[in-house]
Design a protein that fits this description.
alpha/beta, Rossmann fold, 2 domains, 12 helices, 45% helix, 19% strand
């Protein structure tokens, strides 16, 4: 491992992949994880939280600095949960609190189900669990159409359909600006892997609410204050209802942790300090 200022970086060999991770701070272990969001997406929040925690962030398998041995292998939720279990065990500073956002929230829930001894608390921020919705069949078909559209090479069209399904308004000029023209090759590779090998597994995963209620791991469901009416607002509320808990509000929307990491980190620490 090598250290750069307050950040220690390392890699861990796991089945079928090599995981890149970063560690900041000292204190109780706090994991910030996304899917497909990378360690860089959580850097701002991690810096804030490192004042009172040992903060672990990672690039999920198949993205950026965490290559797969077989690039065309799917990224399943259980494989990503196993990756987190191995990282927590490798650091030997657990059990951990895990904050997961979007696909990372799904990973965190799966980790709690498979390795409850490694996790004291999971904060599941806006998990896209479509199978909990009453119109899951329609969303399943939409997801397959989005993936098929991307596979034809219509990148902007695929993202247009994705944001429509997510009920996230995004102006057409912004779509073209973000997803058209010259783009970072690493970002494009991550995007391509996510559409082809990860999206359907993440949104199609089915949690086990009775198991999550029975294990000692505390599960907190988080929703962005600005996410009202969006796809992940609905999925999160369905999960909270199935668990018999009230969802907790966080600043911003689906990516509030990146938009205002200072306010988001403060809210996360506040939530974790609640009895």
């Amino acid at each position: 491992m090598t250290a750069s200022s307050a950040v220690t970086t390392g890699t861990l060999e796991v089945p079928d992949a090599r995981l890149y991770y970063e560690v900041r701070g000292s204190g109780p272990l706090l994991v910030l994880v996304g899917a497909p969001m990378s360690a860089a997406s959580f850097a701002g929040a991690a810096e804030q939280l490192a004042a009172t925690n040992t903060v672990l962030t990672t690039d999920p398998r198949g993205h950026f600095a965490s290559p797969l041995n077989e690039p065309n292998q799917d990224s399943t939720v259980l494989a990503r949960a196993d990756d987190l279990a191995r990282l927590i065990t490798h650091l030997d500073t657990g059990p951990a609190v895990v904050f997961g956002s979007s696909g990372g929230a799904v990973t965190g829930l799966a980790l709690a189900q498979t390795h409850p001894d490694l996790v004291t608390t999971v904060v599941a921020h806006e998990p896209p669990l479509r199978e909990l919705l009453p119109d899951a069949d329609a969303h399943r078909a939409l997801t397959e159409d989005i993936i098929a559209t991307y596979d034809t090479g219509d990148v902007i069209g695929a993202w247009r359909k994705f944001f429509a399904q997510a009920s996230i308004p995004i102006p057409e000029p912004m779509l073209t600006q973000i997803f058209g023209g010259d783009r970072d090759p690493q970002q494009v590779a991550s995007e391509r892997f996510w559409f082809a090998h990860e999206l359907r597994h993440t949104t199609g995963w089915v949690p086990d609410p009775p198991l999550l209620r029975a294990i000692p791991t505390r599960v907190i469901v988080g929703i962005g204050a600005d996410s009202t009416g969006q796809f992940c607002d609905h999925t999160s509320r369905e999960l909270a209802s199935a668990l018999g808990v009230e969802p907790v509000q966080f600043p911003g929307d689906h990516t509030g942790f990146a938009q205002d990491p200072v306010a988001f980190a403060a809210r996360l620490q506040e939530v974790l300090d609640l009895p």
